[in-house]
Description:
InterPro entries: DAP_epimerase_DapF. The protein is of the alpha+beta class. It folds into two domains: 3-109 and 250-259, Diaminopimelate Epimerase, Chain A, domain 1; 125-248, Diaminopimelate Epimerase, Chain A, domain 1 (Roll), CATH 3.10.310.10. Helix content is 18%, strand content 45%. It has four helices and 17 strands. The protein has a 17-stranded mixed sheet that branches. A hairpin with a 6-residue loop joins strand 3 (48-53) and strand 4 (60-66). Bound molecules: the ligand N[C@@H](CCC[C@H](N)C(=O)O)C(=O)O.
Amino acid sequence: MSHIHFYKYQGTGNDFVMIDNRDQLFSKNDTKLIELLCDRKFGIGADGLILLENHPTAHFKMVYYNADGQESTMCGNGGRCLVRFAQFLEIIKDTATFEAIDGMHHARVVDDISISLQMSDVTEMRIENTYVYTDTGSPHHVQLTENLTEIDVYKEGKYLRDNVYGKAGANINFVQLQDSNTFKVRTYERGVEDETLSCGTGVTAVAIAMHKTNHTASNEVTLETPGGVLKVSFEACDTGYENIWLTGPALQVFKGTFTA
Ligand SMILES: N[C@@H](CCC[C@H](N)C(=O)O)C(=O)O
């Protein structure tokens, strides 16, 4: 029997089990264990699990798993929560540099509530008739709707995820324009296979897609998700978008020991 010390964090309702794995004791390839820890009935409950590990040059390394137990691509809200965890562990003070699966990230502790995270530059964008596809560290489908509250995000998100993106899948974001620089967003997340309350790489994709398709002229966009408000700022460049920052709340919720 093993005892796993864990911390629980949330960023606009996107929630994560955090484990300090600087001692490399966590069973990283145990998909079933990670899935169990994220299970909301039999485990702690979370949209994903994140390991904080040592890095030779940066403050730390981020290893991200979806709730299905599989290691996945970048998680923006998770990255912001991990910076808060690193601050709690006294690895960082006001600024951080860490490596994630999509490369190096810089981050700033704004205050006791908010963390700002620099996202990867966006170079890939496909504009179709009814949607935009882009990669903000994770793959995202962005589709405008006029009726966000009525939409069945689970049913329509799952359909698009399975039928447009095949086995690899993508995250599916439904978006409604609020004003010239504010959008409401609901996301079906790959690997959770359900709607989550917020998705950081998702709102980043929405902000950039809305700018690229002239639905906003602003370089700082407000995104209203079911779990809270996030801001994304960015600069357009020859290759796409750069200097992209995702800002919003990231908080510790509780800690404990899991017996497996
Ligand atoms: N919640 C995340 C995205 C996590 C990764 C995603 N589920 C995937 O597998 O692509 C975020 O805040 O960015």
